[in-house]
Design goal:
- The complex is a heterodimer of chains A (518) and B (293).
- Chain A is mainly alpha-helical.
- Chain A has 21 helices and no strands.
- In chain A, α14 packs antiparallel against α19 and α16 crosses α17.
- In chain B, 49% of the residues are buried.
- Chain B contains eleven helices and eleven strands.
- The chains are: A mainly alpha (518), B alpha/beta (293).
- At the A-B interface, α2, α3, α5, α8 and α9 of A face α1, α3, α4, β7 and α7 of B.
């Protein structure tokens, strides 16, 4: 039947070639990621994991440990809040400089734009690792790292939001003689306010997750405790920390959802814009930022003394010139290849798993699985997958896959829900079995969205893959950790540049692919 | 809740930052007199380090008349960097971290005392894999070091591996850094790495405390002896305080029950004087293993 030209899929040849080309490109990446599914089912490995997971029960509840835990939780919250406050301070002027909004000609400021790219392109964990060295022990490093990366991200998104709203009011203001600042304030921000506020709140939620991860390099908080517990394979402690962490993420999620919904309700109909609710919110925000800085006790005076400036200068000078010897570049190139492989394999596996988890009609249990998968950070998954398949890139790819499957599964489920239902229904009415109706009716409608989500996630995963090496997953992260430990700053700076270039290249590739798939 | 309230909130947040920053900047200046700030390379879990240090800290307070504050960290290089930037006064360093500190401080860091045991320290290679019987069997296996800048968990084993004709990056299948000696044991016991290497003192302690199943994990090679750990002060610390600290360490006497507890926690028979030259061998090894450039 397939040989009958009339019945053949007209796109078959193109698809076959596409599939083959993809295989040819992916094969070496799978090789580099050392994918060996067999290791997952090796009885020895299964026993090790079983023992470790069995040790999760009962979770540790000793008073001394809970004391540490409470302190670390507060510290994590404070790092996230203080870091966001700093990010906001950085983002507002940068966004003003970078955005084309409110300008006569929509010219973009290339210098600020590239500065923002650098701020965002270097993962916060790398900033933290560097700052721990410059500013010494404690959470100052985490706050500054968050401030810089998130400052860069906020500034970029603020700039884009301001560009995306209707420019007419601002233009009118400019033409009647208002300065650019005022035109933006009164012409653009009122339209964009909700989106700006909503994105800021969402980022704060991300900052909590990120501040946990930064603890892994010694920036304090829950991550530091988690790192210790995971390294020592202390299941009971790990379980308690994980539960606390999940609780924290879920409540931050809830709080930010509530805030965003509150932004959607129209203001009450009275003259003053201030109701008791906004005053309460103001006081809370103000108090929590002050409390955060107090709790963390960051000696800003010490950080910005002449002596500190001197040592920072010396430290940074050590990074220049980067080591560009052929021998070192070859090593870095291998690291880049491995990191790329981890990100691609991780994202692909996640896409498959996420799709499978997004399909079932009865959502409740699967939503729970997806939420649990994504609330555990990649670095924590990596410690567990390293037990399952041994150290190396495959462990990193699996860790990425597990976390990302949670994220993608949720997004996929929403996209499939929103896909036009008619083609699938029509096929089913015409007698096609459910599977075919889905494959040829529903899936094509949702596919562009699914692919876009996956590519976006790949952009984030390349940054994550670059740092998974800190826990033994190979790639650029391991190189960086090693060289920084040994004060080989010239080599470390080559690695940081490689991370930056790789993340920019992946952003470009993903944007190109998204455009092609449209 | 309107937009303007959010904007104002954000502005107030900014003011609060500046306010909080000025407060927190003023605080340390008030209390920086007569405080001895101490840290240690995190070669074991930080909670364990704090437990170990508590009685020694009290003893040093009594001996120097200063308030002693111990800051645990999770990163070796951070301790070196803090000593170089004068954020800490006294640090427990490994042989290699001492060499790094010496270089970072242009030779001013002063080692004041070491344990008797540190003059002839060794590292143990461990495995849970029956097929590994000698260093040569490590080819093609996954291997766990401690922290990259650990003397007994990375540098010296690497040096001796090199002398045995093995290059970890080329000959091992995968190299991981567990970060701490007790974590290396956990890695090997769990099969996360097929073999690993750690400091002999921590291994003995874990065996004594039955924290490791010696039927499963066994030592298959030991390095020749070398100089390791010491207590180091930053060079520009008041010489009177340096003298007091040095005397305090050397005075610890195993016959005194109170001192005995301190020494036992430090796993030291007693403390002996040390000097920079003791670590020249480590510096050479670090150059030859490519860890110093």
């Amino acid at each position: 039947m397939l040989l009958n030209p009339a019945n053949r899929d007209p796109a078959a040849r193109g698809r076959l070639i596409g599939a083959l080309a993809t295989l040819v490109i992916l094969w070496p990446l799978f090789q580099a990621a050392e994918v060996k599914p067999g290791a997952l089912f090796d009885s020895g490995n299964l026993k090790v994991i079983g023992n470790f997971l069995a040790a999760f029960l009962p979770p540790e509840t000793g008073a001394e440990f809970l004391g540490y835990l409470a302190k670390a939780t507060l510290e994590t919250l404070a790092i996230a809040t203080a870091g966001m406050a700093l990010a906001f301070l950085i983002a507002v002027p940068m966004a003003y400089l970078a955005t084309g909004a409110g300008r006569e000609k929509p010219t973009l400021n290339p210098i600020t734009r590239s500065l923002l790219t650098i701020l965002r392109g270097i993962p916060e964990l790398v900033w933290a690792l560097v700052f721990v060295r410059v500013f010494g022990l404690g959470p100052a490093a985490g706050v500054l790292a968050l401030g810089l990366t998130y400052g860069g991200m906020l500034a970029k998104v603020y700039a884009e939001i301001l560009e995306s709203v209707d420019a007419a009011p601002a233009r009118a203001l400019r033409h009647s003689g208002a300065s650019r600042l005022l035109a933006i304030l009164y012409g653009l921000i009122p339209q964009a306010s909700k989106e700006l506020a909503s994105y800021t709140v969402y980022r704060w939620e991300c900052a909590i997750r990120a501040s946990v991860v930064m603890g892994f390099v010694g920036a304090g908080g829950l991550g530091q405790l988690m790192d210790q517990a995971m390294k020592m394979l202390n299941g009971g402690e790990a379980a308690t920390i994980l539960l606390t962490f999940m609780g924290l993420v879920f409540s931050a999620d809830g709080l930010s959802g509530w805030l965003r919904r509150a932004l959607d309700t129209p203001p009450a109909n009275h003259a003053s814009p201030f109701g008791w609710r906004s005053i309460g919110l103001l006081v809370t925000l103000f108090a929590s930022i002050v409390a955060s800085f107090q709790l963390l006790d960051i000696g800003f005076g010490e950080l910005f003394s002449a002596e500190a400036a001197h040592s920072i200068g010396e430290f940074i000078a050590g990074f220049f010139p980067p080591d560009l010897s052929a021998e070192w570049l070859a090593k870095v190139a291998k690291g880049i290849w491995e990191t790329l492989a981890i990100s691609v394999v991780g994202t692909l596996l996640a896409a498959i798993a996420g799709l499978l988890l997004a399909l079932p009609k009865w959502r409740a249990p699967f939503s729970f699985i997806l939420n649990s998968l994504r609330s555990v950070p990649e670095l924590v998954w990596a410690t567990i997958t390293a037990l399952a398949v041994g150290l190396g890139p495959f462990a990193g790819a699996l860790a990425l896959a597990l976390h990302t499957a949670g994220v993608l599964g949720r997004l996929y489920a929403e996209a499939l829900d929103n896909a036009p239902p008619t083609p699938g229904k029509a096929l089913r009415l015409a007698g096609a079995p459910g599977g075919f109706a889905f494959l040829y009716g529903t899936l094509p409608g949702a596919a562009p969205q699914l692919i876009a989500y996956t590519l976006y996630r790949w952009e984030m995963n390349i940054r994550m893959a670059a740092i998974l090496g800190f826990v033994g997953a190979g790639g650029l992260g391991q190189l960086l950790y090693f060289e920084l430990s040994l004060f080989h700053h010239a080599q470390a700076s080559t690695v940081i540049m490689a991370m930056l270039l790789l993340s920019i290249a992946v952003d470009q590739a993903s944007a190109w692919l998204r455009q092609r798939m449209r | 809740m309107s937009f303007s309230s959010l904007r104002r909130a954000a502005l107030k947040g900014a003011v609060a930052c500046a306010f909080a920053a000025s407060i927190s900047a003023a605080l340390p200046a008030l209390a920086s007199d007569a405080v001895l700030r101490v840290s240690a390379i995190p070669d074991e879990a930080p909670t364990e380090l704090q437990r170990k240090f508590a009685p020694l800290g009290k003893y040093l307070e009594a001996q120097t008349g200063m308030k002693v504050i111990f800051t645990p960290v999770s990163d070796y290089a951070a301790v070196v960097e803090s000593l170089a930037t004068k954020k800490i006064d006294l640090a427990w360093l490994g042989g290699f971290t001492f060499v790094q500190a010496k270089i970072r401080t242009n030779g001013t860091a002063i080692p004041i005392a070491q344990r008797e045991e540190d003059a002839k320290f060794t590292s143990k290679f461990i495995t849970a894999d029956p097929s590994i019987k000698s260093l040569a069997d490590l080819k093609g296996k996954t291997f766990a070091f401690g922290a990259p800048s650990s003397t007994s968990g990375s540098l010296m084993p690497r040096f001796f591996l090199q002398q045995a004709g093995l290059n970890p990056e080329k000959d091992f299948k995968n190299v991981a850094f567990s970060g701490a000696h007790d974590a290396t044991v956990a890695f090997v016991a769990a099969g996360k790495a097929e073999a690993g290497v750690l400091n002999a003192s921590v291994w003995d302690k874990m065996v004594e405390a039955k924290k490791v199943d010696t039927d499963k994990v066994r030592v298959f090679a030991t390095t020749p002896p070398y100089f390791d750990y010491n207590w180091t002060v930053r060079g520009d610390l008041d010489p009177v305080i340096i003298k007091k600290l040095t005397d305090a360490f050397l005075k610890l006497d195993p016959a005194n029950p109170e001192h005995k507890e301190i020494l036992a926690l430090q796993r030291a028979a007693k403390f002996i004087p040390t000097k920079k030259e003791n670590y020249d061998g480590i510096e050479k090894a670090a150059h030859s293993a490519g860890l110093l450039k």
